[in-house]
Specification:
Blueprint: H1 6-19, H2 24-48, H3 52-59, H4 62-95, H5 99-117, H6 121-146, H7 150-158, H8 167-177, H9 180-189, H10 200-236, H11 239-244, E1 260-262, H12 264-270, E2 285-286, E3 289-290, E4 297-298, E5 304-308, H13 312-323, H14 325-358, H15 364-389, H16 393-406, H17 409-419, H18 422-425, H19 431-458, H20 463-489
Antiparallel strand pairs: 1-5, 2-3, 4-5
Helix pairs in contact: 1-8, 1-10, 1-16, 2-7, 2-8, 2-9, 2-10, 2-17, 3-14, 4-5, 4-13, 4-14, 4-15, 4-16, 5-14, 5-15, 6-10, 6-14, 8-16, 8-19, 9-14, 9-17, 12-13, 13-14, 14-15, 17-19, 17-20
Length: 490
């Protein structure tokens, strides 16, 4: 469920609308790699009897433990902001509630889930299964109505390619799919079913079923992500809009802005800037009428519209204009299910991270109150700015996805360090871990290159700002290098 949060869905819809099926291979291979990390996390918890956060506290010096804990808390709070905003946007689509009211409702509903959870794991598990079923049904209906090209979907998965203007989308998708706190969560969730102490055979059997469970769950998550990408690729992608970001004469060039072909009615309702498909210049709008000089774009289905940015907030109106009101309602229900389900997984992850790193046992409702309070402030600010000042809430979600990409080492390096440690894993140590180390180093290299290009494309930073980035990067790099060198130092 943590692979299907609102931030993930926003990355999906923007990937489809901005780059068609070009980045489907990023989704596929990120899911495969994420699945391998989940399997390792489950094996770590099963074989050691401790989850990843507990092992970090036991193995690392205190200052390193606290630094990694802070990094994970930032990730969890960022995800919480996405969940609050995503659910409030869905409530706005369904009931026309102001975003800030939706934020308040969403901030409180987590306590309802905690009440359900207190009545036993089975009830919360059934609720999660219900939410997964709702998401599958909703997004599959929109997928079938859209009638995407199966050939193009297959090519998008099989053929790796990326244009310069789609770099930021690739980074965001990487962070949205391989989320650091999921690794901590999965290593803890297997504890209740661990066979540690029952002998080698039962532990191996448990590891097999934990791995099978992770593979099946991630296969379903990939299908849902593919459904969302395909819906927006088949209905809103336009080569004209896609090429604006590569045209030096357009207003979007070098600004980190990408656009899709949004139906005229939805484009005017959103309040976002509209760009001419031929020049990339911002079009003037008077009394709800777009200037005649503003050239229209056309989707791959030859439906006319205007080049415009799209995010979760604009997606409902866009889907309604292209597929009808029922499709819009179905999309919103799926988004609500996504927000609520990921809220539950985020709550569990936050609890395990705090308890493991700090050896601090607090009531779940207190933990939720702390996290939600920290997330609610930024979410309310974004909601109010979006509602009354024309701010793009999707920018925040994109930046959070990029932040999650940057935080990956603080989950993956400890995971690989401990799962290759024979003292901890015993005879359950495997060669696949060593292969994953090589893959992870390659992932970090690609990730940091893309993040640097994202900063260059998306932000016009001054020399002072770059100096601040350099200071943060130095501390960050030193911590990552220490974690990577830890097995050699000890």
């Amino acid at each position: 469920m943590a692979y299907l949060d609102p931030g993930n869905l926003e990355a999906d819809l923007q990937s489809g609308a901005y780059s068609r099926y070009e980045l489907l291979y990023v989704t596929f291979w990120s899911t495969v790699l994420g699945g391998l990390y989940q399997v390792l996390a489950a094996r770590l918890g099963s074989c050691t009897g401790r989850h990843l956060a507990e092992l970090c506290r036991a193995e690392y010096p205190r200052f390193v433990t606290y630094a990694v804990w802070v990094m994970m808390e930032l990730v969890i709070i960022g995800c919480d902001i996405q969940e609050v905003l995503g659910t409030s946007i869905a409530l706005q689509i369904l009931f026309e509630l102001p975003l800030w009211i939706g934020c308040l409702i969403t901030a409180l509903d987590t306590f309802t889930f905690l009440a359900i959870d207190r009545h036993g794991d089975n009830k919360s598990s059934r609720l999660l299964e219900t939410l997964i079923g709702i998401m599958c049904a909703c997004f599959f209906v929109d997928f079938t109505v859209s009638k995407p090209s199966g050939t193009e979907i297959a090519k998008g998965i099989a053929i790796p390619r990326i244009d310069d203007q789609n770099v930021m989308q690739a980074v965001g998708m990487l962070g949205a799919i391989i989320m650091p706190h999921n690794v901590y969560l999965h290593s803890a969730l297997v504890q209740s079913r661990s066979r540690r102490g029952a002998g080698t055979g039962p532990v191996k059997e448990a590891n097999f079923y934990f791995g099978l469970e992770a593979v099946l769950a991630l296969f379903v998550s990939f299908l849902i992500n593919m459904f969302v990408i395909s819906v927006f690729a088949s209905n809103f992608y336009s080569e004209q809009c896609d090429q604006l970001a590569a045209d030096p004469s357009s207003d979007v060039y070098g600004a980190g802005i990408q656009t899709a072909c949004i139906p005229a009615a939805a484009a005017l309702v959103s309040g976002n800037d509209i760009y001419s498909a031929s020049t990339g210049l911002v079009c003037s709008i008077e009394n709800g009428v777009v200037a005649v000089a503003c050239t229209r774009c056309y989707t791959i289905k030859h439906i006319g519209g205007y080049c415009q940015q799209v995010g979760l907030k604009e997606a409902g109106a866009a889907v309604s204009s292209s597929l009808g009101q029922y499709a819009k309602a179905i999309w919103a229900v799926g988004l609500v299910a996504s927000g609520q389900a990921s809220t539950m997984t985020g709550t569990y992850a936050g609890q395990f991270v705090m308890e493991g790193f700090l050896d601090l046992r607090i009531a779940a409702w207190k933990r939720v109150a702390i996290t939600r309070t920290m997330a609610l402030g930024p979410a309310l600010v974004v909601a109010l700015l979006t509602e009354y000042d024309g701010f793009h809430s999707d920018i925040v979600s994109e930046m959070i996805n990029v932040m999650q990409s940057v935080q990956l080492p603080f989950a993956l390096v400890p995971l690989l360090t401990f799962t290759t440690n024979k003292r901890l894993m015993g005879q359950h140590n495997r060669w696949i871990n060593l292969a994953l180390i090589v893959g992870t180093l390659a992932l970090f290299g690609v990730n940091y290159t893309l993040v640097f290009r994202t900063l260059q494309q998306g932000f016009d930073l001054s020399s002072n700002a770059w100096a601040a980035v350099a200071v943060v990067a130095t501390f960050y790099g030193a911590l990552v290098l220490y974690l990577m060198a830890f097995p050699l130092l000890h």
